[in-house]
């Protein structure tokens, strides 16, 4: 059996998404073996992120600068805002490198079951960004789940009287599918075939 320190590291890593206790132990073993190179590098990277991590006040993205690198990028088209549930969805969509506009992170989805109400999500700040003007299109990129689609319809209703085009990702996303788990090709396809919300 390993020492308490090593046990603690393994159980901390086991809580990461995608890592169970067994792969956490494997990761610890690997880090111990490569302590002079990889362990130092991981520690340094974690420290740098921890020192600088901030939430973007405009879009809700998590980055090491506020406004985030996407909001601050003048090459991004500010006329188009893609609304996502979580930061993971933003990162997944942005990896597909097809959408050139800006994003807005809601911080979840409406859920009667979990007691998530509109005021718990960053919906007012989205309306605020649209109200400021200069936005032509709002792309609703919610997950293809019942709650995701309920959220999309709620936002579409709130935006109804604003002079913006509202589109959503094309179906073809697997039902019940979470954006974060899709490959970039499927995501790119869904984004390309986005259509007006009916
Ligand atoms: Zn931002």
UniProtKB/TrEMBL annotation:
InterPro entries: DNA_Rcmb_RecR, Rcmb_RecR, Rcmb_RecR_Znf, TOPRIM_dom, TOPRIM_RecR. Coiled coil: none annotated. It holds the Pfam family RecR_C. One of its GO terms (molecular function) is zinc ion binding. May play a role in DNA repair. It seems to be involved in an RecBC-independent recombinational process of DNA repair. It may act with RecF and RecO. The lineage of its organism: Bacteria, Pseudomonadati, Pseudomonadota, Alphaproteobacteria, Sphingomonadales. Keywords: DNA damage, DNA recombination, DNA repair, Metal-binding, Zinc, Zinc-finger. A zinc finger (C4-type) spans 56-71. SMART domains: TOPRIM. This is Recombination protein RecR. PROSITE patterns: RECR (PS01300), TOPRIM (PS50880). Belongs to the RecR family. One of its GO terms (biological process) is DNA repair.
